[in-house]
Amino acid sequence: MDQQEAGIVLLSQELVAGILACAFFCLFPISRRAFKYLPAINFDYLFGSLHSHCPPSQEHKIMCITHYFERICQCMPKGFVSFERKVLPLRQSCHAVSYPESAFWKRSMVPLCSFQTINSGLIEDQQHEALEVDFANEYLGGGALHMGCVQEEIRFMINPELIVGMLFMVSMKKNEAIEIIGVERFSRYTGYGFTFRFVGGFVDEKPLDHMNRRKVRIIAMDAVDSPGNWQFGIDCLVREINKAYCGFIDQSKYACYVKISKEGSFGNSHTSQDEAFIMDSNECIFGGSSTQNNIDVSSSSSGYQSPSTFNLSVRSCPEIFQEDIGIATGNWGCGAFGGDPQIKAVLQWLAASQALRPFIHYYTFGVTAMQKLEEASLWILSHGWTVGDLWCIMVEYSTQRLNEASHSLISVVIVENGRPDPVHLQSNQEEERNKVL
């Protein structure tokens, strides 16, 4: 699965077991894998880390793997697993969602989706229909078969079928994500990092979909590693939101998005084609040019539609919402990667909303900086903000951070009349327009 080549690989769980057995016995050729931007797949390094100076977590990772083999030897699973490379084309396309720039996010009139914070529990334990975010390395699996033992690596141990993707999935570029559906969970655990411990088997009771895949949907997307202050610059913000957007949007429903746009969910009959950002089916939802895609903007309704009108129009294309699959995520790109958790939370919320996901369940993992997240999100939703509104506030906040301001994005929310004016927003008027929650 090469870079910039969208596609899906579908494997039976029995074939997955055979591939993992080959990796266990280190049977795969290793030459040129690094040259082809492929991660290691054999288990030699994992077993080689078992020595007196090795942290116990490595031994417990192997216990998860051996437990998996014990289970499938007792009863071979009969389902299927799919691995999909998702791509936002860097060039505009009339057949797929394209890679947006900053102006796209600024002008979006899509309403924000439901946002629920969860202060305890784990993403993999949630019971809703949701894409579960893997805080991934650009090389799928990260250090799963090496010394790593944080969020991604742990998920690969308790769901060992994920490891198979490391055989053929080339590293991800900025406009790519990897979606994996159907992997079964086999292990329970406690701890994190060096304290990780295997504590026994797990019986996965998730139902199967129409393709006989278990309804476990994992989206692997890599954040910028150690971004420092660059993460507050517009280039990094665009990169991160587009990475999440690529993971969250369902390209197979492109025709439905086009239908929504052409029905006038967005539009202003007084807007020129050069400014027709909102009504173009490859703009507000996809990114693109009205003139390039020959969209007739003159027939759209006058004035921008309200979020409620938008929702009614979206419902007219029920294929998008037939499963109501939301997003389950948390502090993506934070921790070892050094990202700001408040910025990352807002970016994921914006991306999920733009992708027309019905909700985000956000696991805070007890991070102090996220304590007011629920309060701020409820306030924003109650005032009917759109994706464009919140994007502008985040950009303004990030600019202040670049100028060494110390405000908190969550605790400082610009609220003047229920919706900010991004055109006239000025940082020197902050005192008059800010409300501290």
TrEMBL record:
<dbReference type="GO" id="GO:0004649">
    <property type="term" value="F:poly(ADP-ribose) glycohydrolase activity"/>
</dbReference>
<dbReference type="GO" id="GO:1990966">
    <property type="term" value="P:ATP generation from poly-ADP-D-ribose"/>
</dbReference>
<feature type="domain" description="PARG catalytic Macro">
    <location>
        <begin position="104"/>
        <end position="371"/>
    </location>
</feature>
<dbReference type="Pfam" id="PF05028">
    <property type="entry name" value="PARG_cat_C"/>
</dbReference>
<dbReference type="GO" id="GO:0009225">
    <property type="term" value="P:nucleotide-sugar metabolic process"/>
</dbReference>
<feature type="binding site">
    <location>
        <position position="192"/>
    </location>
    <ligand>
        <name>substrate</name>
    </ligand>
</feature>
<feature type="active site">
    <location>
        <position position="153"/>
    </location>
</feature>
<feature type="domain" description="PARG helical">
    <location>
        <begin position="2"/>
        <end position="85"/>
    </location>
</feature>
<dbReference type="Pfam" id="PF20811">
    <property type="entry name" value="PARG_cat_N"/>
</dbReference>
<dbReference type="InterPro" id="IPR046372">
    <property type="entry name" value="PARG_cat_C"/>
</dbReference>
<keyword id="KW-0378">Hydrolase</keyword>
<keyword id="KW-0472">Membrane</keyword>
<dbReference type="GO" id="GO:0005737">
    <property type="term" value="C:cytoplasm"/>
</dbReference>
<protein>
    <recommendedName>
        <fullName>poly(ADP-ribose) glycohydrolase</fullName>
        <ecNumber>3.2.1.143</ecNumber>
    </recommendedName>
</protein>
<dbReference type="GO" id="GO:0005634">
    <property type="term" value="C:nucleus"/>
</dbReference>
<feature type="transmembrane region" description="Helical">
    <location>
        <begin position="6"/>
        <end position="28"/>
    </location>
</feature>
<dbReference type="GO" id="GO:0006282">
    <property type="term" value="P:regulation of DNA repair"/>
</dbReference>
<keyword id="KW-1133">Transmembrane helix</keyword>
<dbReference type="InterPro" id="IPR007724">
    <property type="entry name" value="Poly_GlycHdrlase"/>
</dbReference>
<feature type="binding site">
    <location>
        <position position="151"/>
    </location>
    <ligand>
        <name>substrate</name>
    </ligand>
</feature>
<feature type="binding site">
    <location>
        <position position="137"/>
    </location>
    <ligand>
        <name>substrate</name>
    </ligand>
</feature>
<feature type="active site">
    <location>
        <position position="152"/>
    </location>
</feature>
<keyword id="KW-0812">Transmembrane</keyword>
<feature type="active site">
    <location>
        <position position="134"/>
    </location>
</feature>
<dbReference type="InterPro" id="IPR048362">
    <property type="entry name" value="PARG_helical"/>
</dbReference>
<dbReference type="GO" id="GO:0005975">
    <property type="term" value="P:carbohydrate metabolic process"/>
</dbReference>
<comment type="similarity">
    <text>Belongs to the poly(ADP-ribose) glycohydrolase family.</text>
</comment>
